[in-house]
Amino acid sequence: DAMVIQNPRYQVTQFGKPVTLSCSQTLNHNVMYWYQQKSSQAPKLLFHYYDKDFNNEADTPDNFQSRRPNTSFCFLDIRSPGLGDAAMYLCATSRGTSGDQETQYFGPGTRLLVL
Amino acid sequence: GDSVTQMEGPVTLSEEAFLTINCTYTATGYPSLFWYVQYPGEGLQLLLKATKADDKGSNKGFEATYRKETTSFHLEKGSVQVSDSAVYFCALGPYPAGGTSYGKLTFGQGTILTVHP
To answer: Taking CB atoms and an 8 Å cutoff, what residues of chain B touch A109?
Structure first.
């Protein structure tokens, strides 16, 4: 089945130690998104790629970066994780951003713990 | 700016009860509307969507109708099951190409549903 895959499902890192979260998709979608979801809150969009075009949300901290080396993969890099960055990180994809192409499909998420 | 307001939870029901989760939105245009469901420890799954006024989305016994006049997209199910226990998110979708909400979903705060046998 076509799907959105996130690895690992759980990630433990140390305060200030860089960490990378991975997302891959077999849907061949053009757009890939990263959301941060803190406990009992709604997901918050960090940034997204439309093909190779990167779109950063205005309030996304500089500590968060992303890479998309090809259509299938997208990475979230947290350069110096703080305790406040502990959250579930959700990857999503869509074919496009309008009309029938706009529906976003989510992966299972990676739960990040910062010690 | 765009926003979504959901009824506060948690909502606790007995099996086979009728479910309504209210959702209202504020938007400057005519975005698509979505309901997503999140089971414990999982990512979000698309439950249903509607792309224009008076559209009804439906899936797995759940329904929601896009009401432009009341800016609402309430989720309903006639008979809930224990397996429906989850967090439900209403979301406002991106605008047609060229709009300022390019690619962005705006979520409500989520409503926790617990169904008891």
So the answer is: 42-43
One-letter amino acid at A71 equals T
Nearest to A34 by CA among A74, A4, A83: A74
Provide the greatest CA pair distance for chain B: 48
Beta strands in chain B (DSSP E): 3-6, 11-14, 19-21, 23-26, 33-38, 44-50, 56-59, 62-65, 75-77, 86-92, 106-107, 111-116
Tens-digit pLDDT profile for residues A26-35: 999 999 999 9
Identify the sign of the CA torsion B40, B43, B47, B51: positive
Contact A108, A23 (CB under 8 A): no
pLDDT tens digit string along B52-110?
889 999 999 999 999 999 999 999 999 999 999 999 999 988 655 444 445 678 899 99
Q: Is A73 on the interface with B (CB under 8 A)?
A: no
Q: What is the sign, positive or negative, of the torsion defined by CA atoms of B114, A43, B5, B27?
A: negative
Contacts of B49 in chain A (CB under 8 A): 103
Q: Which tens digits make up the pLDDT trace of A77-96? A: 999 999 999 999 999 999 88
Give the 3-state secondary structure of residue A101: helix
